[in-house]
Write a structure and sequence with these properties.
Distance between the termini: 56 Å
Strand content: 35-45%
Number of strands: 22
Structural class: alpha+beta
Helix content: 25-40%
Order of helices and strands: HEHEEEEEEHHHEEEEEHEEEEEEEEEEH
Shape: rod-shaped
Length: 387
């Protein structure tokens, strides 16, 4: 019996240290486990890393709303001239080509016109009738003074002279309509020789955008021969949806861009807002004036127009705070001192400082504002069992 008690005592003496050792090991493991959160989306940031990041609430910023619409470049209609034929006839010479720079008064084409020849002939005939009427009046006055005719005959001849003067004035006006200048009419009067050739001249300085005729072509009066535009200033034109038209007005800030010039941002203001709604597209036409001294912007170029609304106070998440995970926008939300949780949020449009916060954070919530990418990489490394 005494021997049995000795054996039990020895066993107890050997088991107790082992038990105590086991309990101590579990306590140490529990303490170590408390240093790192069990949630793989959470991370406890070491003090040295905390010194490298910035933590705070999402800042408030003045944000301008934008509406981006398709646009295109057009010639300024106030600087556009449709140069037309003043008289019907056949094109016998062409002096310009598309894309050529021309000056005001420069000859664009030459026309041979039988209509012009007929009008000149009628003018010369009217002048001849006027000269005859003037001589008849002078002769009648002499005869009246001599008592050969009465005053009624003189009055008749004076009336014929007035009629002849009216016909000359009418014929001369017709020649001006047909494109003859004062100098050309004076030469016709002096030389009394019909000339069926007339020239079409540019009415402005500019660039020939279109040449609509060829040599030998018969044109009618007022038919467009060339389209000339001064491209030193152009329009950027867009159609704004009706539901957005109420928020825009002339003078509003606008930014334009063009695929032909990647990265180019053109700032301006709206110079015109359409006064009617297009019944087919339910849009309102707007435009901005664009200086074009080097002619780099060409009519019909594609563009985009971003219309700016008034500033609005919104919370803006800095780009360095945004973490893309599983094709979603997230931030690292502070849950306790030095502890952060990967937290999903909803973001809106871009701004110069970041992206507008739509939902997911309260005003008092604190996140990592700068350095979130590196902390999130550390979180993923620890979640995978890294040391």
């Amino acid at each position: 019996m005494k021997h049995r008690r000795s054996i039990l005592a020895c066993c107890a003496a050997g088991i107790l240290p082992a038990v105590l050792a086991g309990c101590g090991s579990r306590a140490i493991s529990a303490a170590q486990a408390s240093l790192q959160p069990r949630n793989p989306l959470e991370i406890a940031v070491r003090p040295d890393l905390m010194q490298q990041i910035k933590v705070g609430a999402v800042p408030w910023r003045d944000v301008r709303g934008t509406l981006t619409v398709a646009a295109h470049v057009e010639s300024d209609e106030r600087r556009l001239a449709r140069v037309s034929a003043p008289v019907a006839g056949r094109i016998v010479e062409l002096e310009v080509a598309e894309g050529q720079q021309v000056l005001r008064g420069q000859v664009l084409a030459t026309i041979h016109s039988t209509e012009l020849a007929s009008a000149q002939s009628a003018f010369l005939k009217a002048q001849t009738q006027k000269q005859l009427a003037e001589r008849a009046v002078a002769r009648a006055r002499q005869l009246l003074d001599a008592g050969v005719i009465g005053s009624a005959e003189l009055q008749r001849r004076e009336a014929e002279l007035e009629q002849a003067n009216a016909e000359v004035s009418s014929s001369e006006a017709q020649l001006r309509v047909l494109g003859m200048t004062e100098e050309a009419i004076a030469r016709l009067t002096a030389g009394r020789s019909v000339n069926p050739i007339t020239q079409i001249r540019s009415t402005i300085d500019g660039t020939v955008l279109e040449r609509k005729v060829t040599i030998g072509q018969v044109v009618q009066a007022a038919e467009t021969v060339c389209l000339v535009a001064d491209l030193s200033s152009v329009w950027v034109v867009a159609d704004v949806p009706e539901q957005s038209a109420g928020a825009i007005a002339a003078g509003k800030t606008v930014d334009a861009g063009m695929p032909a010039f990647p990265g180019l941002k053109i700032a301006g203001v709206l110079s015109y807002i359409g006064v009617v709604v297009n019944p087919e597209t339910r849009t309102v036409r707007v435009r901005m004036d664009l200086p074009n001294p080097d002619r780099r912007f060409k009519p019909a170029m594609l563009a985009t127009m971003a219309l700016m609304d008034g500033a609005e106070r919104r919370r803006v998440v800095p780009l360095d705070a945004i973490v893309r995970e599983n094709n979603e926008d997230n931030v690292l939300l502070e849950t306790a001192p030095s502890r952060f949780l990967l937290h999903r949020i909803t973001l809106g449009g871009d701004t110069a400082e970041g992206r507008v916060l739509e939902a997911g954070l309260g005003e008092s919530d604190r996140i990592i504002l700068d350095g979130a990418f590196h902390i999130n990489n550390e979180r993923k490394r620890l979640a995978m069992g890294g040391e």
